[in-house]
Amino acid sequence: MKDLLTRSVFIRLAALLLALAPVLSACDTEPAAVKQAREHEEEYKKIDDKLIQDYFTRKGITSSNYQRTESGLYVVTVKEGSGQLIQKGNRVQVQYIGRFLKQEREDVVFDKSYGNRTLCECTEVVVGANSVIRGWEEALLLMKPGDEKRIFVPSYLAYGQYSSSPSIPNDEPLQFEMVISKVNLQ
Fold it and tell me: What dihedral do alpha carbons 36, 42, 47, 53 form, nearest 10°?
C-alpha cells in the first residue's frame, strides 16, 4: 500500500514537471513584448538625443549651459535657488510650462500650471510617489527651493510610445520650465 501511494505521488509529480517544462524553460528568455519595448526605447534614446541637440543648436544652447544625466535628461539652470536638494518624500510645489521641442511644433505650450486656479499657480508633487513622468521625478531630485530650471525630457522618460495624454503624441520629447516655489519635508 505504501509503495502504491509513493508510486502514485511520484507519477503525479513527474506529470506536473512535464507539464511545467515549457514554462520553466521559458523563464530565461525575454517575452517578445518586453523585448520589443526595450528595443524601441533604445532606438528612441538616439532619436530623442538628436532632437534635443538639434533644438539646442537652433536656440544657441551650448554644452557649457546644460547638464546631461546618465538617463538622457538634460537640465539647464536659469536661476540657482538655495538650501538643500529635494529628496524623495518631500512635497514640492512646482510652477511650470510644458512645451514641445520638435521643430514642427517648437515651443507650442501643451500644459502649464499658471492660471490653474490655485493660489500658488502651481502643482503639488510628492517626490518619489511616481505621480509624474520619470523625467520630472529625476529632475526634482536635482533641484532645491527657488530653483528655476529648464528640463529637456526624452520621450522614454515622458509618456513613451503609448502616450496616455490626448495632447501629447507618442514618442514625443518635451521641455519644461520649472520653478520650485515651496518644499515641505514629509
Answer: 160
Burial of 86-107, coded b for 16+ CB within 10 Å and e otherwise, reads: beeebebbbbbbbbbbbeeeee
C-alpha to C-alpha distance for 100 and 141, rounded to whole angstroms: 23
- Residue pLDDT, tens place only, 152-161: 999 999 999 9
Read off the DSSP letter of residue 176.
Answer: E
What domains can be seen in the chain, in order of their start residue? 35-184 (3.10.50.40)
The residues pairing with 77 across neighbouring beta strands, listed in sequence order, are 149
123 - beta bridge partners? Answer: 94
Residue 178: strand, helix, or coil: strand
- The 10s digit of each residue's pLDDT in 164-174 is 888 899 999 99
pTM of the model: 0.82
Nearest to 81 by CA among 141, 148, 140, 126: 148
For 150-183, b/e burial (b = at least 16 CB within 10 A) is bbbbbbbbbbbeeeeeeebeebbbbbbbbbbbeb
Give the pLDDT band (50/70/90) at residue 20: low
Residue of 123, 121, 157 whose CA lies nearest to 139 = 157
Q: How much is the pLDDT for 72?
A: 97
